[in-house]
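Researcher: Next entry in the queue.
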Amino acid sequence: MIRRVGVLVLLMGTMWGVGAGQQVALESTPPSRAQVLKLMSSMGVQQGVDSSLQSTQKKLRLAARNSFLKKNPDASEATLKKLDEVFDSTQLFDFEAVSDALIPAYQKNLSASDVQAGIDFYSSDAGKRMLEKMPVILREANESGGHLVQVKLAAYSEELERKLAAFQAELDKQKPPAADKAKGADDKSKTTDEKSK
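Model: Structure for this entry, 197 residues:
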């Protein structure tokens, strides 16, 4: 019986060691490309980049159209239709085109288990709510925090100026008066002149 318990303990210890070894390996293993893409999608990074690029494309098209109309103010509807065809045939890149430049930063700084934890969280209801509310939170925090920072910086600046003025006054007390310096210099020059006579 003791022998069986010993074998069971040894077997459990070995299994725990293998499991712990796998956990350590997972914690030090960089995430795969697929994992990083899934995390980016869960966090809304991919959607955010694509949305930002689409907005940028619209602004570029509008600027190009306005520039064209300045050079060609009498352009006909047919010409403007052809211009739109030029715009439509020139597509801006999307998230997929830049993803390979972004993924290595995630792989370098996060482990596979970090990425999986992020995927789990941002796929959960709480994670989705956080992502949904984060722009509102950041805007409100910037508004109230920005005002508070300005108030505190003004108070800091006033206190610093007051302390610097007090410090300068203390230094000025330690210096000999300017009139005494000039008189001392005159006395020295007279003494030198008198000695030379």
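Model: The longest helix spans residues 125-174.
Researcher: Noted, moving on.
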